[in-house]
DNA sequence: TTTAGCACTCAGAACGGTCAAGTGCTAATC
DNA sequence: GATTAGCACTTGACCGTTCTGAGTGCTAAA
C-alpha cells in the first residue's frame, strides 16, 4: 500500500501542488480546483498548467475526482505521501506545551489516572476523538501477595501485578483467624509468585493445601480469585474521549458511517486487537490512513497513535481517531509531545508516586 | 408540570384514543391520524368522531399538531399521563429474566464490576443508551489503613473506604524501614479513621508527626495522599453504554441535537448533579420526560432510572436515556428487573465476594 | 350524538431551469 | 517542448413551481 516512499516521478512542482491540495482540503474539506491554487504564491504558473499537473497526479493515484466537474481531493495514497514526505514539522505553541506540562504537575499516582488525563488532553488539544490503549498482556503474574483481615470471616487479598495493585475480597463460611491469613499469604508468596494462570497446576494447589493444614478450605476459592484477577488483568483496555467531536466534521455527517463508527467505539475488542498488535513494534508516531486500517469501518478515517513506555517497556498507547482529512501536522506533534510527557511522568526518577515500581520481592 | 394525575375530564374513550395514539407514535415515530385509529378494534367509532375527540385532547394539552394537515403526536403532558395512568405492565419474558439472572451468576467481586455488567445489559435489553451512576458522596472517610512495603524507599498505602479498597503509592527519598511503616500505619489508624478531608486539621498532623519520631518526614506526603484519595472518591461517577443506539432512532437524526447529546455524555458533571439529587428520594422507577429534565439539552429525551441499594442504602443508580417517544413499558420493566437483580447480588447474605463489607474496625 | 361529505391546508416529492465551478482540449505563444 | 489563453462541456447545487396525498375542520344529515 505504501507505494509512495521516495517516488521520484514527482518533480518539485508536483510535490508543491500535491501539498497545497492536501493542505487546502484539510482546511476546507472541499475539493480543490486549479484556479484556487493559483492564489498560492509558491505555485507560479497558470491554472491550465496546474490542471495538467493535476491530471498527471490523478493518473499516478495521488488525487481523486469526486465527479467530472469538481476539483480534486487527495486519495489515500496522496495522504500517505503527504504524511511521509511533504509534511513539515509543527511545533507546539508555548501554550500547548504548558498544558502538556500540566499532566506532569498533577503528580497522579496511577498509570491509569495519568493515561486518563492524557487522553482527555489529547482530545482537547487536537479536537478529535482521542483514545488510550492498555494492550493485551501475555505473561501476567503476581509478584507479591498480601492479606488484610477485615473481620472474622472476611479478608482482602492484595496482589501486586507489574507495579499495579489489585484487590479481591474473600468471604468464607468459617472464620479466618489471623494465623490462617498469615499462613495463606506465605503459601501464596511461596508458590504462586511469577506464575501465569496457565502455570498454576493441580499439584501446586495440593501442596498449598498441605501447607495450610486445617485451613486448607481457603486455598481453592482464593486461588480461583487469583486466576480471575490475572485473566481480567491481561484483557487490555480501551478508552475514548471526545466522541462528540467527530460530529463537528462534515466527514461524519453520513449517519450510517457515524453509527458504524460509534459501534466500533463500543465493540472494543476489534480495535484493541489491532492496536495491541501494531503498538508493539514501532516507537514512533504511527499513522494509519483509510483502508490501511484493517477494520473496514475505518475506511475514511485515520488513526494516529504512539506507544507510551515505562522503563523502556511499552505499557500502553495514546492516539487520535478522525477523518482522513485531518490536520496531520498538529495531531502528530501533539501526540508526540503528549506521549513524551507521559513517558517522562512514568519514568522520571524523582517523581513521587509514579506507579513505577520494581518487581523484586523485598 | 404533572397536571395529569387523575384528570377526570377524560372519559374512557378519550383515554383509549390517547393511549392508542401514544402506542402508535412510539411504534412508528410518525404523527397519528384519525383514519389510522379506526383500524384499532377497540375504538368503535368513525374517523370524524375521533377527530372531534382529538381536537378536545389537543385543547387539554395532551396532544400536539406538528402542522395543520398532519396527524397528532403526544405532548409531554400526554406522555406523562400515559406513563402515570394508561400504561399496562409489561412482564419480562423468560429469556429476558434468565439474562438478568446471569448478572447474578457471574459472582463478580466489586460493586463497580456488577454495575458495569448491569449497564451493558440495560443497553442491550432496551436498545437505548444506558447509564449507571455512582452518586456524589458527602461523608467519605477511611475506616482502615494498611501499609505494604515494596522496597527500601517505596510502599503502598492501602485504604478501606466504605467497603471499597483504594491504594496509593508512597515513594520517599529516604529509606522507609519496616518499623517506620508499622508506626505510620498505627498513627493513621489511630488518628485519621472516620475523618473526612475537612476534618483533618493541623493539630492532628502535628500529633502524628510526634508519634512517628524520626520518621516524621513521612506524615505530610502520606496525609496529602489520603486527602487526595478521599476527594477523588467522593466525586461520583457516570458511565454510558450503547451511545450508538441513539442513532437508530430518527428522533436523533438532527445533527445538532445529537452533538449536544453526546456532549452531555462527556460533560458528566451536569447530569451527575441532577441524578445525585433526584436519586436520593424515591426508590421506585423514576421517569423524567422532556422538559421535566432540568438539563435543557434533554428537551426531547426521556430519562428513566432507579436507584440500586445495598443494605437499604442507595449506592448508585441504573437508567436509560432515549427519545421521549420511547417504549416505556419495556424500559420500565427492564430497569425494575435489573436493579432488583443487582440489589439482590449486592445484598445477598451468602454470596461470596459481593463487595459488601462491614465498616467496623475489627 | 354520531357520521358522511367536502373544501381546505400543508409538507414533501418531482420537475425543470439557471448558475457557478471546474474540467479537458485545442490552438496560440514563449 | 513547455506554458497559457480560450472555449465548450459536465455536473452538482440552488430555486421556484407544480402536484399529490394525508389529514383536518366544518357543516349538514342521520
Q: Give the C-level CATH assignment of the largest domain in chain A.
A: Alpha Beta
- What's the quaternary structure here? homodimer
Shape annotation of chain A: elongated
Query: Which band does the percent of strand residues of chain A land in?
Result: 15-25%
Key words describing this protein structure:
44% helix, 362 residues, elongated, Beta-Lactamase, homodimer, 5-stranded antiparallel β-sheet, 12 helices, Arc Repressor Mutant, subunit A, DNA-binding, 10 strands, Enolase-like, domain 1, 18% strand, alpha+beta, 3-stranded antiparallel β-sheet, 3 domains
What does this 3D model show about the protein?
- The structure is a homodimer.
- The first copy, chain A, has about 350 residues and is α+β, with helices and mostly antiparallel strands.
- Chain A folds into 3 domains: about 10-85, Arc Repressor Mutant, subunit A, CATH 1.10.10.10; about 95-135 and about 235-345, GAF domain (Beta-Lactamase, 2-Layer Sandwich), CATH 3.30.450; about 145-235, Enolase-like, domain 1, CATH 3.30.390.
- Chain A is about 45% helix and about 20% strand.
- Chain A contains 12 helices and 10 strands.
- In chain A, the strands form 3 sheets. Chain A has a 5-stranded antiparallel β-sheet with strand order 7-3-10-9-8, with helices on both faces. In chain A, strands 4-5-6 form a 3-stranded antiparallel β-sheet, with helices on one face. Chain A has a two-stranded antiparallel sheet with strand order 1-2.
- In chain A, helix 5 (about 95-105) packs antiparallel against helix 6 and helix 6 (about 110-125) runs antiparallel to helix 12 (about 330-345).
- The longest helix of chain A has 20 residues, at about 330-345.
- Chain A is elongated.
- The model of chain A is unreliable at about 1-5 and about 350-360 (pLDDT under 50).
- At the A-B interface, strand 4, strand 5, strand 6 and helix 10 of A face strand 4, strand 5, strand 6 and helix 10 of B.
- The structure holds a DNA duplex (30 and 30 nucleotides).
